[in-house]
Amino acid sequence: MSYGLSVFKASGSLGFSTADITWQFLDQFTVAANASVSENYSVASGMTIIAQRQLFNSPPDAQEDFVPNVSISGTTVSVAPQSGKSSAQCIVIVLARDE
Question: What is this structure's pTM?
Fold first, then answer.
């Protein structure tokens, strides 16, 4: 017998199951405005890594803020401002899953 959580769609078909592979929290860090940061996660070697960006503060009305670009190469997550644009402070959440 297996244990876990199954979520079914209104049609009755399976929508999500924890018996499947799920994304696991790996790290969270804050990147200052217009900063570049690179983090290495050797513990996640052989896993698939993704990153989510979230603005640290909401921009004032009539102001446009840009989140920085995030690139992932192997186990390294790099964050840098968009080319030619000022980036806002943001939170980067890193997730990983074993394939």
Answer: 0.76
Residue 61's contacts (CB-CB under 8 Å, 6 or more residues apart) are none
Per-residue pLDDT tens digits for 16-56 = 887 777 789 999 999 999 999 999 999 999 999 999 999 88
Euclidean distance between CA atoms 16 and 13, whole angstroms: 9
- The pLDDT, as a whole number, for residue 35 is 94
3-class DSSP state for residue 83?
Answer: coil
Contact criterion met (CB below 8 Å) for 52 and 45: no
Q: How far apart are the first and last CA of the chain?
A: 23
- Please check whether residue 88 is in contact with residue 58, taking contact to mean a CB–CB distance below 8 angstroms: no
